[in-house]
Amino acid sequence: MSVHSRSTRQHLLRSSLAVGALAALGTGLLPAAPAGAAPARTDLVVGTSVDPVEVPAGGGSSTLTLDLRNSGTKASQDVTVAFTLPAGTWFFTDGFVVPPSWHCDLLGTATCSYAPLAAGEVADTLSIPFGIPAGTAGDTLTITATASTRMESSLTNNTGQATVHYIPSTVDLDFVPAATTQQLLPNEQAQLVTSVRNTGNSPSGEVTVTTPVPAGMRGWETYNEGWDCAFGNGVADGRTGWRCVHGPLQPGQTSEPLTFAADLTDTTVGDIVTLEATASTTSTETILDNNMARDTVTVEQGATVRGTVWVDNNRNGVRDANEGGAPVGNGGIDHIELIPQTSGQPGYTVTVNPDGTYVAYARPGTYRAEFYVQDPHEFIDSVDSDLIYHWNETGGYNNYGYTDWFTVTTSDQVTLDAGVN
Hints:
Layout: H1 6-29, E1 44-51, E2 54-56, E3 60-70, E4 79-84, E5 90-91, E6 102-105, E7 111-114, E8 126-132, E9 140-148, E10 159-167, E11 173-176, E12 179-184, E13 189-198, E14 207-212, E15 217-219, E16 228-236, E17 239-246, E18 258-264, E19 272-281, E20 292-299, E21 303-311, E22 333-340, E23 348-349, E24 351-352, E25 357-362, E26 365-374, E27 387-391, E28 398-403, E29 406-408, E30 413-415, E31 418-420
């Protein structure tokens, strides 16, 4: 056994105390771990909204928008969002795009999944349209979306809700445009061109537009794409005119254009004539005051061109006092036209009377009159004829001739005759 002297023992004791003091000092300089620090956790936050928030009582659709973020301090695991739909509602499966980052089963489990979200990360916005059944105005429907993953710090903000409100259903037809005006000459053609629009929030029933032909006008059968139109006596609510039928119009939908055309055959300068179209539907409408379209026509003064296609019965090349006009139609006058010299300016088909006389009303400009007569009548050269050219060997049913160019202004009166035998 080793024995130390007293002085040696005292030296060893002092050395041990010094080492212990240094160790204690070193330990006091090391950083201490916080006693109450919380572990890193995921925290999902869900937000939902719908647009529109109101739907008609007859049913409709809206779009659910989902916003998802991780407000925690740790990345999440895979996220699943489960939707709870009210009875009778359903998700659409086409007509929209699901972002590639989302994977959805909308027909089966009504869930969508997303890859892990980093701390603070926001998921791509997800918007899903859904159908809504008929309900009662004033009632509501609520859609719920709940997100889940593993190891969250809080579940209080994992669920979002959005509410749809039922409002009264409305159907309201109007015309676009509802009113037009024209300034026309006698025998020119008036046109009412318009479309029907449903400004209500619900689909209409079958749409019908009736347009009677006003007194002083002659209507024409017309074709309007998207419409089933008829023209004739008694068609327009018992009057001569048009009746056009279109399928139901959706909320906000505007139909294909409608055109109704009628000639001013029996009007005089200063007359005001109106073409009126009225729309109706098989469903109940909210407002009826806007169901009419009008084209108001004011008959203006123009130049007058008139004359006679006379028959040289004795073939002496002049018009004798007792020589009247040619018959109209088969074996007589086929038609007469005023042709404008300027391209783009309107021409006119004139009114031919049974006694061979004619009259046309023209706007200021330069024209020539073109005459067409059927065999056996042929045009002749005569000092009493205003034709500068004629051709009686056309090879068709009509022989042809025309006058020189002439210029008219408003209120001018011009007489142009043509002789035939």
